[in-house]
Amino acid sequence: QVQLVESGGGLVQAGGSLRLSCAASGRTFSSDAMGWFRQAPGKEREFVAAISWNGGSTYYAESVKGRFTISKDNAKKTLYLQMNSLKPEDTAVYCCAARLGTLATARADDYYYWGQGTQVTVFS
User: Fold this and answer.
1) Average pLDDT of span 117-124
2) Buried (b) or exposed (e) across 5-39, using 16+ Cβ within 10 A?
3) What DSSP assignment string belongs to 44-66?
4) Are 60 and 49 in contact (CB under 8 A)?
5) Is 102 in contact with 30 (CB distance < 8 Å)?
6) Quick check: 23 and 7 in contact, CB under 8 A?
């Protein structure tokens, strides 16, 4: 059974940092591009960051560029999202996702596997 399990969310003061992890099982994902998406209460799901299968290409939403860093460790089958300089507007449930393809994209419809999500709450 293929699973993506996120961890690392929590409550943090504005300006602080969190590191999210997404552990994969049931499939290697070493040839798959992966991404992070988030959804705040009452809002649509939005793209946060994506990374190609080998980490060679990364893409970020404008709202997180320069503050968030996505990375992928194929040997550990784990995806990461380092989040610095957090803002209250970053509060959301963060989900990781994996494509059946090597190229990173920002479209949620391109991703086949999804995790359940981890809550990130940033207070001022």
Assistant:
1) 97
2) ebebbeebeeeeebebbbebeebebeebbbbbbbe
3) --EEEEEE-TTSS-EEE-TTTTT
4) yes
5) no
6) yes
- Once rounded to an integer, what is the mean pLDDT over residues 86-91? 98
Q: Looking at residue 90, what DSSP letter applies?
A: G
pLDDT tens readout for residues 2-55: 899 999 999 999 999 999 999 999 877 889 999 999 999 999 999 999 999 999
Contact 11, 91 (CB under 8 A): no
Query: How far apart are alpha carbons 110 and 100 in whole angstroms?
Result: 8
Distance CA 113, CA 122 (A): 27
